[in-house]
């Protein structure tokens, strides 16, 4: 029996095979969707993307992870990317689009994808469009996780983490019983270095500067759905489903 990427299907438990087959059969009836998620850090993209991925049978393309994977796998594009990274250069837009192009050939991407963290500039958006157009497809929807900077600041700068366990707290929304102390172990909580107001401010400024034009670009195409990302996650999920129905 042919092994698929080093996995012999004869060794895969029946229940896993059946589950995957049933998933694929269920997925057959789903419409194809190619989605882009845009939103600042802390806007909830990470919470919603797994839900969308499962609901619509899409693959999740996080360009940072994909680049690292391509470099690790030493694919031709990965080798080129590593050369750029080793020189301390940014990986070119064409390379990233090439890596997305390759990823789209995987069976898990057959129904479409969720792109997260790309495109960040209008030039990247244009290159992505060109590549998709050559395949005879296009971006269907851009989900804009719109949220006020002040709400984000409160969300992010209030985060406290118990490092050994990964338990997280929020000084306002989910406070520990004793400030800055883990409920379970009594050990101190820490704040991540990039969860401070100053770091957030610079990340948000960069985000708005780069990304506003990208949202304008897709708005002209009439495919942007504005989400009220400050709402509770369940309500945002409902908005996403409405936007994609």
Description:
The chain is of the alpha/beta class. It has a domain at 31-151 and 205-244: P-loop containing nucleotide triphosphate hydrolases (Rossmann fold), CATH 3.40.50.300. Helix content is 48%, strand content 14%. It has nine helices and seven strands, in the order αβαβαααβαβαββαβα. It has helices at 14-28, 45-56, 63-73, 76-86, 93-103, 122-134, 149-157, 197-220, 233-244; strands at 33-38, 59-62, 112-116, 141-146, 159-162, 167-170, 224-228. The strands form two sheets. The chain has a five-stranded parallel sheet with strand order 2-3-1-4-7, with helices on both faces. A hairpin with a 4-residue loop joins β5 and β6 (167-170). It is globular. The N and C termini lie far apart (41 Å). The model has no long low-confidence stretch (mean pLDDT 90). It catalyses: AMP + ATP = 2 ADP. Catalyzes the reversible transfer of the terminal phosphate group between ATP and AMP. Plays an important role in cellular energy homeostasis and in adenine nucleotide metabolism. It is an enzyme of class 2 (transferase).
């Amino acid at each position: 029996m042919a092994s698929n990427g080093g996995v012999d299907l004869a060794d895969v438990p029946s229940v896993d095979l059946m589950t995957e087959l049933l998933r694929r059969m269920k997925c057959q009836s789903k419409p194809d969707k190619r989605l882009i998620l845009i939103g600042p850090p802390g806007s909830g993209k990470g919470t919603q993307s797994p839900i969308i991925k499962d609901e619509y049978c899409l693959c999740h393309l996080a360009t940072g992870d994909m680049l690292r994977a391509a470099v690790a796998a030493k694919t031709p594009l990965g080798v080129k990317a590593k050369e750029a990274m080793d020189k301390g250069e940014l990986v070119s837009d064409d390379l990233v689009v090439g890596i997305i192009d390759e990823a789209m050939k995987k069976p898990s991407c057959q129904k479409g994808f969720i792109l997260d963290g790309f495109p960040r500039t209008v030039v990247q958006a244009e290159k992505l469009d060109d590549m998709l157009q050559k395949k005879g497809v296009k971006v269907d929807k851009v989900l804009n996780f719109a949220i006020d900077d002040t709400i984000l600041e409160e969300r992010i700068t209030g985060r406290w983490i118990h490092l050994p366990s990964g338990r997280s707290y929020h000084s306002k929304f989910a406070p520990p019983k004793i400030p800055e102390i883990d409920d379970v172990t009594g050990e101190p909580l820490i704040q991540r270095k990039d969860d401070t107001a100053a770091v957030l401010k610079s990340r948000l400024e960069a985000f708005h500067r780069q990304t506003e034009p990208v949202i304008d670009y897709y708005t002209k195409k009439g495919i942007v759905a504005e989400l009220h990302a400050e709402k509770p996650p369940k309500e945002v999920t409902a908005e996403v489903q409405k936007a994609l129905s």
